[in-house]
Every structure is written in structure tokens, then in C-alpha cells.
Amino acid sequence: MKKIFTFCLLLLTGIVARAQDTDEYIAEHVEYAQDLMRDHKIPASIILAVAIHESAAGNSKIAQHLNNHFGVKGPNNNTQIRSSYRDYLNADESYSHFVEIMETREPFNNLFEKYDQYDYKGWAYGIRRCGYASSRSWASQVIGLIKKYELYQYDDRPEGYEEPVYATPVRHHTKSRRTTKTYTVKSGDNLSIIAKKKGTTVKALMQKNGIKKVNLKPGQKIRL
After folding, report:
1. pTM of the predicted model, to two decimals?
2. Is the residue at 136 inside a domain?
3. What is the pLDDT of residues 79-121, one digit of tens each?
4. H or E stretch including 30?
5. For residues 142 and 127, what is the distance between their CA atoms, to the nearest angstrom?
6. Are 116 and 197 part of one and the same domain?
7. 54 near 62, Cβ under 8 Å?
8. Domain ranges, residue 110
9. Are residues 59 and 105 in the same domain?
10. Which phi and psi (to 5°) does residue 221 adopt?
11. How many CB atoms lie within 10 A of CB 93?
């Protein structure tokens, strides 16, 4: 029994050890993210935040087995897991490929003209609009990570830099209003006459209006 307990404890300890903390993940990859920023003019904060978001700070299955930190799909030769995501030799190669996608693929490559290397909000919204993610909240989640872990401090912002102001996208929920059509009973009307006029059946009118008797009164409202 003691051996089983010890084995389980060691197993759990190993699992905890493998789960990387976000701060540790940032410390491990920030230097390379900054190198990419300086060479390619894309915010280091965006590179890091997208990687954290897409790889669960390096703890996702595709990050662990495929070194894929940005959720990029493609072929892989991995025999440990079956996945539609591509594999990389190491994390740095995954980081470099993300920047390559931004630079070489349309419409992402147009973002470099729109946003500077300090404007992480513009980049987040721009990448989302270009189709990188289907979730409408993706950009807000990435920006939230940047703020939470203060990743903007790695963007080499010049003193006095003022962030562009972007209006937070507002979702308008429009309630669909159903207009109930009614008919006012006239003198001499009966359900058969009304059904014929309105292209329905007596049975349908009775069910819709909860009518058990066919007698109608002038001025009575009938739902069609």
C-alpha cells in the first residue's frame, strides 16, 4: 500500500512539475520575442500574448508534443499524438513561423502599414479581423493577457508614447419581434369564411385561438 501511495505521489508531483507557470513561460520566451520584434517590427507583447493564449502558456498538447505555440495547422510527423496541427523542431521555430505568417500572408502583411510595433491593441484587433481566430472575443482575450502580465513593458516603447484609443466593439443584440396577425370578426362572419379569406383552415384557427365553439361575435379578434 505504501509503495502504491509513493508511486501516486511521484506521479502527481511529475504532473505538477510539467505544468508551466505563465510567468515562467514569459521569462523563457521574452528574449526571443523581443528579438523578433526588433527585426520585424511587431510588438513583443503581441507575440507573447498570442503564444500564451494559443498554447495555454506552453501546457497544451500541441505545444508539448509538436512545439506548436500558435495553433498553426499543417502536416506533422509526430507518432505520439494524432493532430491536424503542424510540428516544429523547437519553440523558437514556432515563434519565427508566426511572424513569417504575419509578414508573408495576406491580409496579415497589411497590418505592418497600419500599426507600429508599440500598438498592441491595434495588432490584436487587426489579427482577429484578418481571420486568425473565429472567436469574436479573441482580441479582447489577448489584450487582457497583455494587461494582466504587463507584457507591453517588453515593447521598447519610447518615452511619452501615447496609445491609440480604440472603441471597444459593442455587440448589439436585436430581439426578433414576431408580429401577430389578427382579424376582426365582422357581422355574418364564421370560421369557415375567415379561413377561406386568409388561406388557412377552420381547425388551425380553432387551435390557435383556443376556440371550442364555432360561434363568433362581431368585433372579436381572431389570431391568424
Report:
1. 0.69
2. yes
3. 989 999 999 999 999 999 999 999 999 999 999 999 999 999 9
4. helix 22-40
5. 11
6. no
7. no
8. 19-154
9. yes
10. -90, 130
11. 14
